[in-house]
Amino acid sequence: MSRRPEEAQAVATSNFPPITELPTTEPQVILAFHGLLSLRFKSPGGPGSEFCEVGMHADAPKHNFTIKAFDLTSGSEDPFFTSSFGPAGSATVDKIRFDAVNTDAPFAFYQPTGFKHATATEKRKVGDPLDFRQVTDFECPEFYNRNLPKHDSLFRPRLILKTGIFVSLLLSQHSFKRQAPFDEKNLGALAEFAAAGIYLKPGGLVALRVGEVEVKPPIKPAGEKTLYLFLFDNSCPPKVCNFNPQSPIKHERNDFFEYYKLFTIPDEAEEFELLLESKNASGPDLPAFRQGTEAYQTAAKFLRKIFEKDIESNNDAPCGPGAYGGGGGG
Prior knowledge:
The chain is mainly β. It has helices at residues 250-253, 294-306, 308-314, and strands spanning 18-19, 29-35, 37-42, 51-57, 64-71, 81-86, 95-103, 108-110, 136-137, 155-161, 165-171, 175-180, 183-188, 191-198, 200-210, 213-215, 228-235, 273-278, 322-324. The strands form three sheets. It has an eight-stranded mixed sheet. An eight-stranded mixed sheet has the order 9-19-3-4-10-7-15-16, with no helix packed on it.
């Protein structure tokens, strides 16, 4: 297969601020992102104004946006807070905020050594399952390698987050490729859940604000474990979106095509479709155990358990987050 001209061009520089090593301490709060939504790092006023915007796809039929919060130390699978919006585009709020006080880690995106983007001849190489770069980034060298014009009105509601270390929390069980005529790349497993770990100092607090509603879970005293999981989910249940991964028709295969409503494809480029490359009989990779990853492991196992039926039905058509790392920083 011939090499596309853009592969010889300079690689776009990601504007996601990197961190190559995770803290050896554990996050007390994890925000998880699943379904059709997009992560964009912004710094409109320069240093000190940075935030991550997580925009829900507001024009994805049959997809519903929900927020659920769980106490992972309670032993219960029931959320202590739920907010259901229906279709994201019908939400009455535009901005959702998650605030944290007295944080103890940089605001960054985990990008360790050992990663190589996929090329026309080589599969993507990943050294750590938590590497954020497994989130599908439409502006990275594996896709369009440039800042894409976005349709901002379709990113809503938007979660505004000013702290956290962002990772790929739970990967798809199977491997996928992105393909256009005479152009395909083997991406391997995709991030089905992205996440942000919030690290707090003693006396630290967090609060979720949705319109007039505020959720402020108690941070337990030193010596008692605190681990809250806030799940932001904009997906379509497999029983409703009953995809056929072998279909030659893109909208019958998976919902990846819906992302193309959010930006303009460069004139000389084409739309990429997502296809199943190979199946893996075992479950999706979990974060490798080492100091500082226990909380991520706990959250990933919990999500895999509560989504077990959906993931089992949807392994061939993952509904994962997207990102724009070559621009959107405005």
